[in-house]
Design goal:
Structural class: alpha/beta
InterPro entries: PfkB_dom (IPR011611), Ribokinase-like (IPR029056)
CATH class: Alpha Beta
Radius of gyration: 16 Å
Number of helices: 4
Pfam family, one: PfkB
Helix content: 25-40%
Strand order of the largest sheet: 1-2-3-4-5
Shape: globular
Protein name: Carbohydrate kinase PfkB domain-containing protein
Number of strands: 5
Number of domains: 1
Largest sheet: 5 strands, mixed
Strand content: 5-15%
CATH topology: UDP-N-acetylmuramoyl-L-alanine:D-glutamate ligase
Length: 144
């Protein structure tokens, strides 16, 4: 049974070493890291055991790695008047990627094309999440 895990931005190397060997799909936020640092981290985590590793980069999109290729995916733009909240966009990205990729695998469509198409759909899905106020549709109004 495939297992996915969403590491947090404060996960230590030791934590990755403890968890990643038991994970099929590893996700991690790396928004401010350089592309070089992201690729290095993805290679390291992939070597720990997951089949596919993916870093979300906020407004810079995402990068996935399958041990052979890096797959860079940009964001899908949201019109300024439609942009409400980026909370949960990363969760939406990884969920949409997994659902799409696993469906493709089940249909016998694996490999690089399936990863690219799944990342593309995931970026679109994450963009739609940014159009919803509050990460669960229930905004909280802050007053000073």
């Amino acid at each position: 049974m495939p297992i996915s895990f969403d590491f947090s931005d404060d996960s230590t190397d030791e934590y990755f070493e403890q968890i990643a060997p038991f994970v099929t799909y590893a996700f991690m936020p790396m928004g401010d890291a350089s592309l070089e640092d992201i690729k290095s981290k993805l290679e390291w985590v992939k070597a720990l055991g997951p089949q596919i590793v993916c870093a979300s980069r906020g407004s810079k999109g995402s990068v996935a790695y399958d041990g052979e290729n890096f797959y860079e995916q940009g964001i899908k733009p949201v019109a300024p008047e439609d942009l409400k909240d980026a909370m949960a966009a990363g969760d939406s990205l990884l969920t949409a990627f997994l659902v799409t990729y696993l469906s493709k695998q089940k249909a016998g469509e694996g490999g690089a094309d399936a990863i690219r198409e799944s990342l593309d759909f995931a970026a679109s899905f994450a963009a739609e999440t940014c159009k919803v106020e509050g990460s669960w549709g229930h905004p909280l109004v802050y007053e000073n």
